[in-house]
Amino acid sequence: MPLYRDEAIVLRTHKLGEADRIVTLLTRHHGLVRAVAKGVRRTTSKFGSRLEPFTHVDLQLAEGRNLDIITQAETITPFSSGLGLDYDRYTSGTVMLETADRLVAEEREPSIQQFLLLVGGLRAMVSGERTPSQVLDSYLLRSLAVAGYAPSFAHCARCGEEGPHRWFNPSMGGMLCVTCRVPGSASPAAETVIVMGALLAGDWPVVEAADGRHLKEASTLVSAYLSWHLERGLRSMAYVER
Ligand SMILES: [Zn+2]
């Protein structure tokens, strides 16, 4: 069987047979990969806890007919140990893993930008420099943008007219002008729209200067935007306070 190496973030795992697991990985060079870790559930496993969700691992894999097989795993960064004790950071991190899993739908389609975004996002989540919701919202908006669902905040999402605009609608792709607005659109505070643009751009001074209620409103709208663009809602989002 041909071997290859890659690095990856472990997104999730599930049991296979008596002692094995199927591990879903977002790799740097091969996009989403589902691979078998043999014997990983035995206490004597050579993999130890290296194939648990949140771990950034360096891997060697053998190409299989259906699923590849993990033959070696070395930990690069165990992000879970930095998140484990903080409920908000842990649950927000879980939303990031689930989002990456859902937005990178194609297996083996390289998506290096999504990989780098996730590694950077987890690093920021662990570092504690910013609040969990700021890290999460920024990650979600950027990940959506990379997946081709960039929301429009400055211009009308429908006609392109320069803003600021008052109406926000996830199904239309962001802000709408008074002519294009559709029933059921939200009308967030102007400051909230600015904060969402800053979260997408990673303009942290603007985010840090923002008022708590505008950040909270932004979180709600980012969640709505994400839910609209995923076919099913995220299970993990229910555990994050928005
Ligand atoms: Zn318009």
Describe this structure in words.
The protein has 242 residues and is α+β, with helices and mostly antiparallel strands. Helices cover 37% and strands 22% of the residues. The strands form 2 sheets. It has a 5-stranded mixed barrel with strand order 1-2-3-5-4. The protein has a two-stranded antiparallel ribbon with strand order 6-7. Helix 2 (87-103) packs antiparallel against helix 3. The protein starts with a strand and ends in a 13-residue tail after the last helix. The mean pLDDT is 94. Zinc ion binds at residues 156, 158-159, 161, 176-177, 179-180.
Key phrases:
single chain, 242 residues, alpha+beta, two-stranded antiparallel ribbon, binds zinc ion
* Helix content class: 25-40%
Number of helices: 7
Span of the ends, CA to CA: 47 Å
In round numbers, the mean pLDDT is 94
Morphology: elongated
Question: Could you state the order of secondary-structure elements as H and E?
Answer: EEEEEHHHHEEHHH
Helix/strand/pairing category: alpha+beta
Total beta strand runs = 7
List the ions, cofactors and other small molecules found in this model: zinc ion
Q: What proportion of the residues form beta strands (DSSP E)?
A: 15-25%
Spatial strand order of the main sheet: 1-2-3-5-4
Largest sheet entry: 5 strands, mixed, barrel
C-alpha-based Rg, rounded:
20 Å
Uncertain residue ranges = none
Q: How would you summarize the topology of this molecule?
A:
Layout: E1 3-16, E2 20-27, E3 32-37, E4 55-62, E5 68-78, H1 79-83, H2 87-103, H3 112-127, H4 132-146, E6 167-169, E7 174-176, H5 190-201, H6 204-209, H7 212-229
Helix pairs in contact: 2-3, 2-4, 3-4, 4-5, 4-7, 5-7
Bound molecules: zinc ion.
